[in-house]
Target: 2Fe-2S iron-sulfur cluster binding domain-containing protein
Amino acid sequence: MRFEQHDIEFQCAANETVLHAALRSGVAITASCRNGTCRTCMCHLQSGQVNYQVEWPGLSFDEKADGYILPCVATPLSELIIDKLVLSSA
Ligand code: FES
Model:
């Protein structure tokens, strides 16, 4: 997995959320609810595909189609390149 904007790479297991893998690797993605509803963690995929641990994460159909994901409930289905994300300042 790669965060293009910050030139950061790390591994994410198929059964691990993108948020969990990022935090485990020291990448502090801004997050709040961690259940796919608040949208705080929303970021954009440049390439790759994800699966969701919840039926319908807090994204509109158009946002999903445009490549936006919620890392707190997304697990990788392929290599991911994320080009827009917000890192926590804490
Ligand atoms: S932290 Fe709330 S949707 Fe991801």
About this structure: The chain has a mean pLDDT of 90. The pocket of FE2/S2 (inorganic) cluster is lined by residues 31-34, 36-41, 58, 70, 72 (CB under 6 Å).
